[in-house]
């Protein structure tokens, strides 16, 4: 019996198959096990710095099954280098979480999809919302409160992360030289020159650790240092009903919902939790009006939460848009646990100092 010779693959076919295989393997690994992220803002300084590249485990809290299948592989919201969306939301699948090692613990950094992006209000599916990394301050069932900048959980003061920063307005006798700022260990993310006073003094907004604050106060160039920590900027706090009472530094008390927790339905509880019941609890039809809650046509006098929620904050408290602004993070928005920094780039560094060698392959606390 005569057999036909097997046609030899062209170089193009070999490369095409190799690329397809690599993309499939990388996509499966990225979805199921771990993913690399880079820190774009200074909201977590000094725990995490701008330019830190993180290795994030998705199996610690349990891998989420894909919700939006029509997506260009290895992209998130947009096709690389363009403003073109990388996905189509025509098909939305139910999302499940596979078994993980454990749940999110209080006090650890977490990567998640923000429930509400105040800088980009584009409506996207959950798995394509903007990624953030913040510290989990409170878990479901906790009562969180901030008194004079100190966070309290269930009435006990939280252990503050080392190098925590707050905002100050600093007036100096003259414009500070680069070497002076370097000596204070301030990079371009830590200070802003606001201008000069009528008598020629320089005005800065600075994010300072306690040690840096001590150094500025002891410096000969200092004229005055005042806290600017409670300036919340242009965004309202969560919940909006408390904006006239709560501030960034004196916030709460706020009870964080946990799965199975039941609340009485009234004006007050709906002002606190109504948005989350409406958007994140998986109900098809929710109507909230005049202190009344109606789900799928049924009026309720009490409500039981379907998932856990978390309260997230940045370590650089006055330079972080976090749960104080956009509220609570539902469990189905949790992505993974940052394990270590595998690379770190200092944009203000020169030559070999562009790489923060001392941060390579360091753990995250």
What secondary-structure arrangement, pairings included, does this model have?
Layout: H1 11-32, E1 34-38, E2 52-57, E3 109-113, E4 131-138, E5 143-147, E6 150-153, E7 156-157, E8 166-172, H2 178-183, E9 191-196, E10 202-208, H3 210-218, E11 222-227, E12 251-255, E13 262-264, H4 267-280, E14 286-289, E15 292-295, E16 298-300, E17 302-304, E18 309-313, H5 323-326, E19 329-330, E20 334-344, E21 362-363
Antiparallel strand pairs: 1-2, 2-20, 3-4, 3-20, 4-18, 5-6, 5-12, 6-7, 8-10, 8-11, 9-10, 13-17, 14-15, 15-16, 18-19, 20-21
Structure overview:
- It is a single chain.
- The chain has five helices and 21 strands.
- With 365 residues, it is an alpha+beta fold.
- The strands form five sheets. Strands 1, 2, 3, 4, 18, 19, 20 and 21 form an eight-stranded antiparallel beta sheet that branches. Strands 7-6-5-12 form a four-stranded antiparallel beta sheet, with no helix packed on it. Strands 9-10-8-11 form a four-stranded antiparallel beta sheet.
- The mean pLDDT is 91.
In short:
The chain has helices at residues 11-32, 178-183, 210-218, 267-280, 323-326, and strands at 34-38, 52-57, 109-113, 131-138, 143-147, 150-153, 156-157, 166-172, 191-196, 202-208, 222-227, 251-255, 262-264, 286-289, 292-295, 298-300, 302-304, 309-313, 329-330, 334-344, 362-363. It is an alpha+beta fold and 365 residues long.
């Amino acid at each position: 019996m005569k057999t036909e010779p097997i046609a030899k693959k062209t170089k193009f076919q070999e490369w095409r198959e190799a690329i397809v295989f690599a993309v499939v393997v990388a996509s499966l690994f990225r979805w199921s096990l771990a993913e690399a992220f880079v820190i774009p803002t200074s909201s977590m300084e000094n725990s995490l710095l701008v330019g830190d590249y993180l290795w994030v485990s998705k199996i610690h809290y349990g891998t989420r099954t894909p919700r939006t299948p029509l997506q260009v592989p290895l992209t998130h919201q947009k096709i690389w280098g363009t403003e073109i969306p990388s996905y189509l939301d025509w098909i939305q699948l139910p999302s499940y979480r596979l078994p993980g090692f454990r749940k999110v613990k209080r006090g650890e950094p977490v990567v998640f999809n923000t429930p509400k992006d105040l800088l980009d209000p584009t409506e996207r599916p959950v798995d394509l919302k903007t990624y953030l990394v913040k510290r989990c301050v409170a878990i479901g069932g906790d009562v969180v409160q901030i008194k004079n900048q100190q966070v309290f959980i269930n009435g006990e003061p939280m252990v503050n992360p080392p190098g925590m920063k707050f905002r100050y307005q600093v007036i100096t006798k003259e414009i500070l030289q680069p070497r002076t700022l370097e000596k204070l260990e301030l990079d371009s993310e830590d200070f802003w020159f606001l201008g000069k006073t009528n008598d020629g003094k320089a005005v800065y907004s600075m994010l300072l650790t306690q040690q840096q604050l001590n150094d500025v106060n002891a410096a000969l160039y200092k004229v005055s240092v005042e806290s600017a920590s409670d300036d919340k900027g242009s965004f309202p706090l969560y919940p909006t009903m408390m904006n006239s009472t709560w501030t960034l530094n004196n916030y709460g008390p706020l009870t964080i919902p946990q799965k199975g927790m039941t609340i009485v339905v009234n004006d007050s509880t709906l002002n606190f939790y109504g948005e989350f019941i409406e958007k994140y609890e998986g109900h098809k039809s929710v109507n909230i009006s005049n202190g009344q809650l109606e789900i799928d046509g049924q009026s309720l006098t009490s409500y039981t939460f379907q998932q856990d929620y978390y309260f997230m904050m940045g370590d650089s408290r006055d330079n972080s848009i976090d749960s104080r602004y956009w509220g609570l993070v539902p469990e189905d928005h949790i992505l993974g646990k940052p394990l270590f920094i595998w690379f770190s780039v200092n944009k203000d560094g020169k030559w070999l100092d562009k790489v923060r060698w001392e941060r390579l392959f360091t753990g995250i606390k």
